[in-house]
């Protein structure tokens, strides 16, 4: 699985806090686990929010995730736990809902899969004009927004990768 997200750091948490992010949602992130890495026990994704209500919406959306957690920076104990997570404790990898690279590139393996998905599931065709795919996160799930001159669709990246 393709993992385009950056690792969380203490410096990034401090910067996000300075930019008025007050809530951080933790969830399981299996995509972050490298199957050749025997030292990593578990991987998580942290999504920052400026609005506590939006963070609570995210928590509702991932209700079935037994590893979910909401860190609120206004509570010192929660901020301390968040900083521990950001320090990348041994056996864990904690990612943040930010792309590693400024501009996402799907890679050579994804392009043919995307074409097959579009042919099988949509009316989009390359002959209709340029097809542009952009990656974004929705409640911690990587999604593709695929646009051509005749429309757009949104699909989980995992659906494309299955092909």
Q: Order of helices and strands, N to C?
A: EHEEHEHEHEEEH
Q: Report low-confidence residues grouped into runs of 5 or more.
A: none
Total beta strand runs: 8
If you average the pLDDT, what whole number results? 91
Number of helices: 5
Query: What is the general shape?
Result: elongated
Short description:
Helix content is 29%, strand content 31%. It has 5 helices and 8 strands, in the order E-H-E-E-H-E-H-E-H-E-E-E-H. It starts with a strand and ends with a helix.
Task: Describe the model.
Helices cover 29% and strands 31% of the residues. It is an alpha+beta fold. The strands form two sheets. A five-stranded mixed beta sheet has the order 1-5-3-2-4, with helices on both faces. A three-stranded antiparallel beta sheet has the order 6-7-8. A hairpin with a 2-residue loop joins β7 and β8 (151-156). The chain is elongated. 24% of the residues are buried. The mean pLDDT is 91.
């Amino acid at each position: 699985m393709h993992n385009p997200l950056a690792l969380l750091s203490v410096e990034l948490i401090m910067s996000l806090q300075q930019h008025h992010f007050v809530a951080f949602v933790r969830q399981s992130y299996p995509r972050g686990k490298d199957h050749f890495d025997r030292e990593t026990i578990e991987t998580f994704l942290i999504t920052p929010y400026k609005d506590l209500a939006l963070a609570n919406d995210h928590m509702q959306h991932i209700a079935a995730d037994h590893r979910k957690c909401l860190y609120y920076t206004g509570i010192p104990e929660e901020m301390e736990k968040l900083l521990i997570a950001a320090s990348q404790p041994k056996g864990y990898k904690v990612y943040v809902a930010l792309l590693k690279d400024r501009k996402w590139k799907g890679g050579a393996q994804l392009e043919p899969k995307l074409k097959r998905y579009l042919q099988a599931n949509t009316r989009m065709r390359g002959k209709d004009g340029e097809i542009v795919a952009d990656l974004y996160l929705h409640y911690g799930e990587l999604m593709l927004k695929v646009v051509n001159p005749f429309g757009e669709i949104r699909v989980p990246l995992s659906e494309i990768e299955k092909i």
